[in-house]
Design brief:
Length: 244
Amino acid sequence: MTLVGRARARAVEILTLDSPHNRNALSAALVGELAEALTEAGQDTGVRAVVLTHTGNTFSAGADLRDPPPPEALVGLLRQIVELPKPVVARVTGHVRAGGLGLLAACDIAAASAEATFAFTEVRVGVAPAVISLPLLPRTDPRALARYYLTGERFDAAEAARTGLLTTHADDVDTALAPILDGLRRSAPDALTETKRLLTARVLETFDRDADGLTALSARLFSSPQAREGMTAFLERRDPAWVV
């Protein structure tokens, strides 16, 4: 079964997360397939930019709790998006949770429709947004992250744009993306690569400095008793034991 659809429109490679049975959760299989598609797009001289989008009403529900990827694999995927020699644009028309927000932050440009919602739900299942902090912390408002990291509250596209998680939002996301994609198509390929390198230098410094420590933290928390209770409660659709 293919989990990542591929199409092309005027030198823009469109990669579509297509795992509706688990709301495009980041399973080991999906992460591997997306990494392969990104590698091929990055090496293809006919590709000017990449659009990352989704089927269904959820861009990504975060890590697949039944088949999670190793933390190292998720770190590798996020870094691959940041380092890809082509701009990567997220196109969101649905909900984004937990690890899915790491994908958004790794992209160079992110656009969402008005119905999109966002939440860092990790604390509610007994873990922390550790690995996804690598692209998030350098690119988003720290006060906003403190609130939403610590509470797991849901917020809308306008708030996501205010905090720096999104580049733009609109009732019709494709209308908002049209001038952006047109601009990328009008830009010289080598100039795009070098300009992206300027923009991502600070993010990659964070990867170099913090990836090992955050990977270890993620692995430790996912194997903790509270995480087992939180994930079991999530799958059983009940409150975990610590809720008061």
